[in-house]
Design brief:
Blueprint lengths: L6 H17 L2 H12 L2 E2 H8 L3 H13 L3 E6 L2 E6 L1 H15 L4
C-alpha cells in the first residue's frame, strides 16, 4: 500500500503524528507512566513529577483533550486514569504504519 496515495492511510499517519507530538513532551510521557500503575489524583501527580500544579494541570488537559486519559471528580478532587482503549488504538496504528520494517 502506498502510504502517500491512500487518503485513509494519510489520515491515519497524520493522526499518529499528532499522537507522537502529544506524548513526546517528557512530563506528559511521565504522567502516562504514572497512570499506568493506577488512577491518581492531580495532587499526587504534580507532587510525584515535582512540577507546579498549574503545569501538571496543563499537561493533564492536553492528554485529556487528546483522549489519552479520563478524569472523574470525587468531592473536591479530580482523579485521572489511562484511556486504555484509545492508547491501544494508537499503538495499533503505529504498528500498522511501522510494523514489519527492519
Amino acid at each position: 500500500m502506498d502510504c502517500c496515495q491512500n487518503e485513509n492511510y494519510c489520515q491515519e499517519i497524520a493522526f499518529t503524528a499528532d499522537f507522537l507530538r502529544t506524548i513526546s513532551e517528557e512530563n506528559r510521557l511521565r504522567i502516562l507512566c504514572i497512570l499506568k500503575e493506577k488512577e491518581r489524583c492531580v495532587c499526587e501527580i504534580w507532587s510525584e513529577l515535582k512540577i507546579p500544579q498549574n503545569l501538571a494541570s496543563h499537561h493533564l488537559k492536553v492528554l485529556r483533550d487528546f483522549n489519552l486519559i479520563e478524569s472523574r471528580k470525587e468531592g473536591l478532587n479530580v482523579y485521572y486514569s489511562l484511556n486504555n482503549q484509545e492508547i491501544n488504538e494508537h499503538y495499533n496504528l503505529l504498528n500498522k504504519i511501522l510494523g514489519g520494517t527492519k
